[in-house]
Amino acid sequence: xxxxxxxxxxxxxxxxxxxxxxxxxxxxxxxxxxxxxxxxxxxxxxxxxxxxxxxxxxxxxxxxxxxxxxxxxxxxxxxxxxxxxxxxxxxxxxxxxxxxxxxxxxxxxxxxxxxxxxxxxxxxxxxxxxxxxxxxxxxxxxxxxxxxxxxxxxxxxxxxxxxxxxxxxx
Length: 170
Description:
Elements: E1 4-6, E2 13-15, E3 26-34, E4 39-47, E5 57-58, E6 62-68, E7 76-79, E8 82-83, E9 93-98, E10 104-106, E11 112-115, E12 127-136, E13 145-155
Parallel strand pairs: 6-13
Antiparallel strand pairs: 1-2, 3-4, 5-8, 7-11, 9-12, 10-11, 12-13
């Protein structure tokens, strides 16, 4: 399939279709001119710049975790990873939680989710959900984002002392 065409009389070079950097990042052309007696050739190298034309993707639309209540802070729960087939800054992803939560932190470059000092207490909350957003091309527009819903089931542990309930006098 010919992407490049040349007008043999004038030497004009043009392309016959759009480039896709994800399929091929560069081209090497050898163009020769012949006047019937002499021939001269020149090499042309074409590097294709990336366009932010691919949205990132997670492997699934949601994940479910089950954790114990009252975990200490800075415990790694999971590392999420999205994929983007674009090149360099167009394919570099940053992660964030939406909405921000007092229970979890996410490392914006690695996608590692950790507990915070305000860990989950089963007596207050038994299930929790939040959204992880991964966005590419963060230094310029357009930025394309993908989403992962995370559901967390909290397991009750024996963390409360027993107490007596005295019968009321009658």
